[in-house]
């Protein structure tokens, strides 16, 4: 009996190997969608806490700052809400609370949350501060204010590794034109002194990592809910001039259709980029783009990974490999057409999917729910969607971000229940809708 029990345990832990699948619909341990956008992460002992914006109501107005816990950064359990609306204040349900970030103040044995606090029209441009004795709180709201009398919209916090654990507010100010860094007081309740300014930089969505004594700042430019090429900057002290902006990855991808939210340092000296893929029309389905952030070239560079995992003890990551199937090798129907361009894998893709057109690709499965990464191009400025049907079953909908006017190919994951052996996967988009063009799909066995 005992032997069987342990054998089963081993099987289960193998099956639950924790993989990160950027852009997938992430669910918590109760099976509900993870609602923690504009993330802030803090580690306490061996537990990770993820605080973020709950957008389940599909509104940009304040509903809650959620709090999730994990021991591996992949499997997340929802806890009590960390902050909820208070009528008649700057954090009412008709206000905006974004980008919550938590610091631990050792001197006061207190958790301090900073967030972007605003009115619905983003006209107030303030920061809010709330405190708690435990990482998930609930937090007690202290108030909202304009730091040093100036505007603050997208913000983050950074805690230095000096003996005093000096903390800083990183924020978009002056109508998002200037990016500022100000030092906090010893309680982390207020800022006392501006220590840096990237004048005219038009940055938002900041994050910072200190690595070998160098301060690396990450931020996007301003383009509303649509992504743009996120940048990195470095400086030898937090108050010295930062290097000129440089791309985190190839510009055309718009940071793999994401915007920076937080950057988690790993034991290896590399990091995890934690971005948001905002869906402005349906905020609740905005997804999380967490990717390897490496300094292998001496500067920070973001690499795409369909399916990957991190060993948190060493910081080493593993990018899964799958089996590739070219879309043009599939069986086409209706209006679907083969497109040729050297940007496509093998030089070809399938276009005009939808309005009756479809392509059916035969793949090998292992008899499990498997990740399938669909490499798509959507030249529209808005999202498209595709129906995906396995072995002729009920189609599910795959959302497909805009990949812009140039021919940019983006990988979008979907989890499909494949039987052992041959399966057909049919991509279409009904009778009155066009899906994105499909270059190839990659089938993974990691679950
Ligand atoms: C938000 O949108 C999602 C996806 O369309 C939907 O499932 C959910 O019911 C919506 N939530 C509300 C409160 O309307
Ligand atoms: C923050 O400090 C400034 C002075 O530097 C002060 O005017 C302001 O009232 C303080 N704000 C809060 C919320 O304590
Ligand atoms: C799919 O896209 C079409 C066209 O943009 C849109 O009208 C439709 O609502 C979308 N369907 C889903 C399920 O997102």
From TrEMBL:
Where would one find the signal peptide in this protein? 1-17
The Gene Ontology terms for molecular function here are: carbohydrate binding; hydrolase activity, hydrolyzing O-glycosyl compounds
Q: Name one GO biological process term.
A: carbohydrate metabolic process
Where would I find the CBM6 domain in this sequence? 323-444
Give the UniProt keywords, A-Z: Glycosidase, Hydrolase, Signal
Gene3D superfamilies listed in its UniProt record: Galactose-binding domain-like, Glycosyl hydrolase domain, family 43
Q: Entry's InterPro entries?
A: CBM6 (IPR005084), Galactose-bd-like_sf (IPR008979), Glyco_hydro_43 (IPR006710), Glyco_hydro_beta-prop_sf (IPR023296)
Q: Which residues form a coiled coil?
A: none
Give the matching Pfam families: Glyco_hydro_43 (PF04616)
> Which family is this protein grouped under?
Belongs to the glycosyl hydrolase 43 family.
Q: What is this protein's record name?
A: Galactan 1,3-beta-galactosidase
Q: Which organism is it from?
A: Mycena chlorophos (Agaric fungus)
Which lineage?
Eukaryota, Fungi, Dikarya, Basidiomycota, Agaricomycotina
